[in-house]
Specification:
single chain, two-stranded antiparallel ribbon, two-stranded antiparallel sheet, 58% helix, 3% strand, globular
């Protein structure tokens, strides 16, 4: 029925009113206090209701499905990032640290974060940043874990200071120009890493040479080497086939709601559990004897030990005092081919000037998280989802700062909001409807009735944290299946990204271009669309290349942060206001009033879409559909 938004029911003020009150008080700390005043009265409803007022069975089903695929979309990248860090840091950081950071930070976020829909974890840019910090620590002769701890401590304090002094308002300046570039970069990174892992052994012969100990009784070592290469090449091709199968099946289930097969309830269930089903099916197929023999040992590489144990023998708290010895001294010596007694006797010691030098990479990390986390949070609260509860950007950034500070004390990598996992999570909690576009050229998605809860984030984060006790179960997954899910995450990230659509329009036959797209209106010449698209793609290439360069990669967050002033000051010199309004339309800032009209379960959202006839809107970032699971179970 016609009911008021949840904060009206509870006597709360809308965010627009909250913003007006902010301006009437001093700036320092008041934004954080205003966020708390907006969210604390809703805290109980975050746990006890599914629609802000009641706990409905349909909402419980949504929480279950959202928790499962959020877990899958978090645990699989965490495994890859853990293996990358283990290789890049010579075993000082690995999968246990990544799981504990992702799970632990997620649990804290679900409990005390302002906007619990945002998924927290260690990202690929953080893996790049941490790898560069390891190289910098080597160059400075600083012990890595204590030095990284100080980087996190300084960065955490910077986060809190920015939140207290209201700097998070700058997130209002992020427009589609910046978000499209960053989302495109994340998707390209996922796809690149998957393709490199799959094709490197086939094209370059990487990791095909035998470097172990020959079995007893081996007489012809040359023949044994050739046999080993043949087996490894066969395993590489088998994993490539499994990756392709996983990707195709994920995409097929992902679009199950568009099928004509089965009943609507079955199609909803297939879409909801697309990633889980695909991973399970292909993992099961990999145990067919012929396939299993071909794969060999090319399954996920996880530590042999279960439990809350670090990657090497050390205590979880890291000694950060000046003069502290490197906790990884023995590990370094054991892994060094030219270890000497002198190296054993003189481990690296943390010095005061090295602590001071960690401020610079701390600034880089803060710049990365300021953009990455706030964009992730903004996408999770996109107006198309029609959320009923207010945002809390300042409080959330201060909570993130506290978490970054704490992970530095325990020697684990920091995490922040995940893209595309954060908007995926919100979408999974929404009721999704497919409607045919007015042009007849396909369907658009509309969202309503999002279950704004803390349970799904808490459940998936707890599951990630508990995965340290179930590493043997994770080890059954073939490497190819993991790479297939990475390909799917990358390609799913392009859905709804206008940069992706305009990139393809640049090479599309002119007479076949989609004239109904908003940026193809009468006020914008297509040559201007091409120029705008080329500028965005150039930024994607620059960020991607910079992130891959040794040492210099530590500065790639600055290039990402530069996107905002480029949009504000540089683009208006190249494009007219009318062209920019068409290519990069202004949005209501996150702090402005967001008070959607009440909707019936089958009604169109009252808030007008910025897209004509819904064109190109919201193919959306998603692992699967998210229509009400109660309908699915009733249909079944």
């Amino acid at each position: 029925g016609a009911s008021k938004p949840v904060w009206r029911v509870l006597g709360m003020e809308a965010e627009g009113e909250k913003k007006g009150r902010r301006r009437r008080c001093s700036a320092v700390g008041k934004d954080v206090a205003a966020d708390l005043n907006g969210r604390i009265p809703l805290y109980k409803s975050d746990w006890l209701t599914t629609d802000g007022r009641h706990c409905r069975r349909s909402g419980v089903f949504k929480i279950a499905s959202a928790s499962l695929f959020s877990y899958i979309s978090s645990i699989l990248p965490a495994i890859v990032i853990g293996n990358i860090l283990d290789d890049q840091t010579d075993g000082q950081l690995g999968l246990p640290e990544v799981l504990i950071s992702t799970g632990g930070m997620g649990v804290v976020w679900a409990l005390v974060g302002g906007q619990p829909l945002c998924i927290i974890g260690v990202t690929m840019p953080v893996a790049i940043f941490t790898s560069v910090c390891y190289k910098l620590a080597e160059a400075l002769d600083a012990p890595f874990l204590p030095w990284l701890g100080w980087v996190c401590i300084f960065s955490g304090l910077m986060h809190i200071a920015l939140a207290i002094f209201g700097a998070v308002h700058f997130v209002n300046k992020t427009t589609a120009f910046s978000c499209e570039i960053f989302g495109f970069f994340i998707s390209v990174t996922y796809i690149w890493d998957a393709l490199v892992a799959l094709l490197d052994p086939i094209i370059t012969g990487k990791d095909l040479d035998f470097d172990g100990t020959y079995p007893p009784g081996t007489n012809d070592t040359v023949a044994y080497d050739e046999l080993y290469k043949t087996q490894q090449r066969g395993a590489a091709f088998t994993n490539l086939a499994l990756a392709g199968g996983t990707y195709v099946l994920c995409m097929a289930f992902h679009r199950a709601q568009r099928w004509r097969l089965f009943t609507p309830g079955v199609r909803v269930l297939l879409a909801d559990y697309a990633a889980a089903l695909s991973l399970g099916v292909l993992t099961a197929l990999s145990y067919i004897p012929v396939v299993d023999d071909a794969i060999g040992d090319k399954r996920l590489d996880v530590p042999d030990d279960n439990g809350l144990n670090p990657s090497f023998d050390r205590s979880w708290p890291v000694d950060l005092s000046a003069g502290a010895e490197d906790p990884a001294a023995e590990l370094i010596v054991e892994s060094a081919s030219n270890a000497t007694a002198a190296a054993l006797e003189e481990p690296l010691v943390l010095e005061a000037w090295q602590i001071a030098a960690s401020i610079l990479p701390a600034l880089m990390l803060t710049a990365l998280f300021f953009f990455d986390h706030n964009v992730s949070s903004k996408l999770a609260q996109d107006p198309k989802f029609h959320l009923q509860k207010p945002s809390a950007y300042h409080w959330d950034f201060s909570v993130l700062g506290l978490e970054v500070l704490l992970v530095g004390l325990f020697g684990v990598p920091p995490g922040n909001g995940l893209i595309p996992q954060a908007p995926l999570h919100t979408r999974a909690l929404a009721t999704v409807e497919l409607q045919e576009r007015a042009s007849g050229s396909g369907h658009k998605e509309t969202f309503h009735s999002v279950v704004e809860t803390r349970w799904s984030n808490l459940i998936q984060s707890t599951a990630v944290l508990c995965s340290v006790f179930a590493l043997p179960a994770i080890a059954v997954i073939p490497q190819g299946c993991l790479d297939g899910v990475f390909l799917f995450l990358g390609m799913a990230g392009f859905d709804g990204n206008e940069l992706w659509e305009r990139m393809w329009l640049m090479i599309t036959q002119p007479s076949l271009r989609a004239r109904e797209l908003r940026f193809m209106g009468a006020d914008t010449r297509y040559s201007r669309v091409q120029l705008y698209t080329a500028i965005q793609l150039a930024f994607v290439v620059l960020v991607f290349v910079l992130a891959k360069l040794p040492y210099i990669a530590v500065a790639f967050p600055l290039l990402i942060a530069v996107l905002i002033p480029c949009r504000i000051y540089w683009l208006p010199r190249l494009f007219t206001p009318a062209e920019l309004d068409a290519l990069d339309p202004p949005e209501p800032p996150p702090d402005s009033a967001r008070e959607p009209e009440p909707m019936s379960p089958r009604a169109e959202p009252a808030r007008p879409s910025p897209w004509p006839d819904g064109a190109a809107e919201g193919g959306g970032l998603h692992l699967g559909g998210s229509s009400t699971l109660s309908e699915a179970h009733q249909a079944l």
